[in-house]
Each structure stands twice: as C-alpha cells, then as structure tokens.
Amino acid sequence: MRTRRSVRSAHALAGALLAAALAVTGCGAGGDSGDSADSKAAGGKGVAADERAPAEAAPGSADQGAPGGAADRSRSAVPSAPRVAAEHIIRTASLTVRVKDVPTALDEARTAAVNAGGYVGDETTRRDGRGHERTRVVLRVPVDAYEEVLADLEGTGTLIERSANAEDVTGQVVDVESRIRSQRASVARIRELMDRATRLSDVVTLEGELSSRQADLESLLAQQASLKDRTSLATITLTLSETPVRKAAEKEDDDPGFLDALAGGWGVFLTLLRWLTVALGAVLPFAVVAAVAVLGWRKLVGPRLPRRPRQPGAATGGGPGTGTGTLPVAPPVAGYEQGAGRGASAPERATDAGSDDA
Length: 358
Hints:
Elements lengths: L1 H27 L4 H31 L5 H9 L11 E11 L2 H14 L3 E9 L5 E10 L3 H9 L3 E11 L1 H27 L3 H33 E10 L15 H44 L32 H9 L3 H12 L1
Parallel strand pairs: 1-5
Antiparallel strand pairs: 1-4, 2-3, 3-5
C-alpha cells in the first residue's frame, strides 16, 4: 500500500512540477517591460551576491594574522557604489570633399580607415560627361578613432558638406541583454524538465516549447550582435568629387587671316555635308517606299484601267484644229463640174488640136 501511495504521490508531484514549470517559463519568456524589469532585478541580485563573496571571505583572511584585518573588514562593510551602465551610441557621418585627384584622395581615405583599425565597405565610382570623376565610399572605423578619422578625411581637400548623427541605444542594448539572460534561463529549465519527464506526451510538448524558446533566443542574439557592431564601429560615408580644371584662355588675334577663313569655311562645308548626309539618310527610306509603290501601281493597277477611245484624226497624225496632219480639201467648183459633164475644157481641146497637127 505504501508503495502504491508513494508511486501515486510521485506522479502527482511530477505533474504539479511540470505545470508549475511551464507557467513559470511562460511568464519568464515574455518580451515585455515587466519581464525585463524582473530580469534586471534578478541580475542585480546576482551582482550583489558576487559582491558579497569577497566581503565574506575578508574575515577569514583577517583571522590568519594579517595586521590590516580590521581595516579590511571595515572597508568591506562599506557598500559599493552602483555600477553605471556604459553608453552605447551609434555614430554615423557623411562628408562631401572636393579634391584635385580622386584616386589619390581615395587611397588616403582607405589608409586612414585601415590604420585606425577599421575597414572599407561599399564603393561606387562614376564619371560625368566632362570627364570629372566622382567616388562614394563607406568606411567603418572604431568609435575611439571616429573624430580623428573625420579630421583626416576633411584635410584631403575642400570640405563641401558635412553631417554627423549620434543615436543613443543604451536602453535597447540593456533590454536585449536582459531578455537574453531570461531566455537562456527558460531554455535551461525546459531542458531540466525534459530530463525528468517520463511520459511521451510530456516529452513531445517540452520539445516543441524548447524549439520555440531557442528560436527566440537566437533572434535576441542576432539583435545583440547587430547592436554591438553598430555601436563599436562608426560609419562614415565619404563622397569625393574632382575639381574641374580651368584651362587658361588662349589669346586670339583680332584680325583673322587667310588660314582662319579657310579653316572656318572648311568647317562650315563639313557641317553642311554632314547635315545633308543626315537629311538624305532620313529621306531615303521614304523615297524607296514611294518608288516601290509607284512601280507596283503601274504593274498591277495600270493595265486594268480603261483606255480613252482614239479620235478619227488621230490615225493621220492630227485632227481638225490641231495644226497638224493633211490640209482640208476644197469643195469642187460648180462650172467645172458642168464642163466636165459636157466635154473637155478649152485647154484640153487646144492640147488635143496640137497633137492632131503634129
């Protein structure tokens, strides 16, 4: 009977412990300000315990016969001053500097960043239509050398624009650290419960909870790493632009000579020829299309059109009133026709008489 009761009581105790642990871990894993405050208080207790350890060890050292034991005990009894959290500030700056030689100034900027313990990030270089070079480079330098590197970069040329920004993220860093401690403790408690669990359902539930807590912990660790990188290294964006070189204007003669006129005329001729070539090239496609259209019209549509009927006088080379062709024939004389009806005319008769005499 005692064995059964002990077994039942053990199961009941294990179930109660599991439920209590899940409730505690669920409350401790939240990311709200209340959890952060609780974790800060727990951290403060840990620090106080660490500070009490040397104070408790001091009497032992005094009992060993050290002459300053009383002074050490009195010194350890004095409460220590509260620790002041270090400032965590994200510093960024942007500089625009005009220089004579962009590649040389860029090499100097790289050297300044590397010598300060930083590195060179993104870099972009482009050249405008007039051949002026412009480079944009991102430098990451330690916060301690931030001001020194800025001064070195400003001395490479003429400063055109400067802007600096400082963002205090101390509260965010402290909050993330507190949540990380709380989350690690929560993961450790879940692991302990998994070691004590005897039923399969409890193990499965605890494994799912452990995976969720570990994912949250990894996210917090990533935030901490990002904050550490941005607060330990300052970001400087440097823009280098090349100074336009102004050439001295050459003295021109007031009176142009023959060669000047020849050069000017030749330039005008070349310009005119170039524009004519451009115009011809622009018109040529339209001319080709128009010629093809005309040829197609004549070949396909022209033969099908009805032809005009020719006039009667067109065969002899012209008609009346055109001024070309044969002359009009006069109507016959009435007397001549009567004489012809009666007999031969007088000249014809004389001719006939002469022939008879012969």
